[in-house]
Amino acid sequence: MGAIIFQGFNETEIIQGCRNGERKFQQMLYNTLSAKMFSVCLRYANEYNTAQDLLQEGFVKVYRNIEKFRGEGSFEGWVRRIFVNTAIEHYRKQVNLYALLDTGQNAYEDYHDNALETLKYEDILKMIQKLSHGYRTVFNLYVIEGYSHKEIGELLGISEGTSKSQLARARYLLQKMITDNAGVGMQSQNA
Amino acid sequence: MEKETKNFDRKIEHIMNENSVAPPFGMWNRISSELESEALPIAAAAPLALIPKRAMFGFIAGVAVIGLSLITAYVVNNSTKQLETGKPITSIAETSPSVAKVVPSTTTNVVLEKANHIQVAKVKTVASKTTQQEARAAIEPSNNDRFGNNTDVPVPNQAIASNQTIGSYYFPPVDIVNTKSTETTEEIAVVTANQLAKQEEKLGDKKGKISATSSSEKRIKLKKHRRSGFTYGSLNRLNKHKTN
To answer: Which of B 2-21 lie inside 8 A of A, CB atoms?
Structure first.
């Protein structure tokens, strides 16, 4: 996550412009980060329209709270955290996460690493979106955002065990989907 | 097994972070319109928020002014009442007992009263007639003997009766014996009364003549003539019918 440079303005200038409420700099920030943040929203949302709503809500939050950014860490990381929290807040009241029984199925047996390489980004994204909200959120937070189970538990208000079990189940289902999809793809290629 | 899961996670993370999806066209317009819609109510609410503050400030100021005026009126009213009654202010008497000693009581301090009376008499003797004349002669020049020491208005010195005291205000004596001015006024009054009687006689004759030859009667006659002679217009059509 490098520093933002857009149309000759560096990150500090863009942030200062956004703090002053200048629409020109707000649009610059949007043009710089919108694609990355929209992919985050698509991962947490189950459909395209919901991802659009999350993107809009997230950017409004960023512009509102940009004065709180102290410049200590990465600005893009700070923006990303806002989007993740926005997505979690969006689904918090809708879904209750519960602990699953440990069935020992941490990974799909027939899964192979080669299957993943045959798929495109869009295909994997659709598979992630097919997961239920609890699985998807924990998977995103642990695998892509790099949160620990303790942090996920604090963020979602669940125990570490619940987070682990949700992640294991999500991984199992995703590997299964990838294997099936890859199998169909392989069959179609062979045919 | 764990190694496989870690590889899987790492590959997924890599794919997700390397790729990104551009948002649909028009998303920025949605965001900017939301930002504007958030900014407008704040701008509109600002004057509404100010009006009650101003009103409250004005109300508080008004109440303060009215309250202060009432308090001052009460204090002034109390002080005037105390002055009218001649009683010492109770608060002062309570706070400083030394002041209360200064106020003389009419019944008990007879000695003090006498002493004051003696002092006043001494003052009066200082301003006696002879000493005043002597002092005036010493201070003023001889050509200005007619006028007093008061430079504001040149008032002639009045002769002061011997039995009058200087301390009190002196009213000059009125000379009632001198009747020269009254005689002249009586003569003038008699002359004017005769002249008036003559004039009235003359005027009485003239009035009769004027009344006989005045044009008021003529005017009245003209009015009567006009009243009797006025007729409404007659319709020729009706006359024609009558003739037929």
So the answer is: 4-5, 7-9, 11-13, 15-21
